[in-house]
Specification:
Strand content: 25-35%
Distance between the termini: 37 Å
Shape: globular
CATH architecture: 3-Layer(aba) Sandwich
Helix content: 25-40%
Number of strands: 12
Length: 216
């Protein structure tokens, strides 16, 4: 299932436009803040799909029956670009556990690359609901590789993929390589092109560099 949140007008479109803007991008703090805000909006929408239970809460004047989350999802950013999204999601799901995955492109001499997972820190994921956060879904290889590695930590019952920008090619790759009934893809903008180096066009550039500085 694919949920594109910019199909309807909302403040999300403002944040997306600022993330793309080459002038506003010069302010890395604002770039991170906009990603964080987007994470909060995605978190709110995802919260509507989760299970709740009614609890009795004591107030100063009596009691109230209130629906509360039955289970808090595990939030998993793909490092390093996923950290601002992670912060936004954690602002919403403030009782959630987190896992962390470091993925990188290993480039060969012919300029082709493979995705390597360098590090994973995670709780037991058996029958848990996961939210995997990565700002850019370009080829889709990072998210697929991340999911496969996470299988060693237990098989989840459902996975929400949160991305600010996706390419058509990346979405098709994910649909082909991940079990559809266990996944929901939440996306801001969908762009049609990829460069030879697998950057989304028009996209926004390198989200990690814009948030934290150019890597060596």
């Amino acid at each position: 299932m694919i949920k594109k949140l910019t199909e309807e007008n909302s403040i999300l479109n403002q944040y997306i436009s600022e993330l793309r803007d080459v002038e506003i991008q010069k302010d890395s703090m604002r770039f991170r803040k906009n990603m964080e805000r987007i994470g909060e909006l995605f978190g709110y929408e995802i919260s509507k799909t989760l299970k709740y239970e009614t609890r009795e809460v004591t107030t100063p004047l009596g009691t109230a029956n209130v629906p509360v989350l039955n289970e808090h999802p595990v939030i998993i950013p793909i490092l390093r670009a996923g950290l601002p999204l992670h912060k936004g999601l954690l602002n919403v799901f403030d009782r959630s556990e987190s896992a962390f995955v470091s993925a990188y492109r290993k480039v060969a001499k012919n300029n082709k690359f493979t995705i390597k997972i360098d590090y994973i820190s995670s709780p037991d994921l058996t029958e848990r609901t996961l939210i995997i956060a990565d700002p850019m879904l370009a080829t889709g290889a990072s998210i697929v590789a991340t999911y496969k590695e996470l299988q060693h930590k237990g098989k989840p019952k459902h996975v929400h993929l949160v991305v600010a920008f996706a390419s058509v090619e990346g979405i098709e790759y994910v649909k082909k390589h991940l079990p559809a009934r266990k996944f929901t893809l939440w996306v801001g903008a969908i762009d049609t092109e990829l460069t030879a180096k697998a950057y989304i066009v028009p996209g926004l550039g390198d989200a990690g560099d814009l948030a934290f500085g150019v890597k060596d």
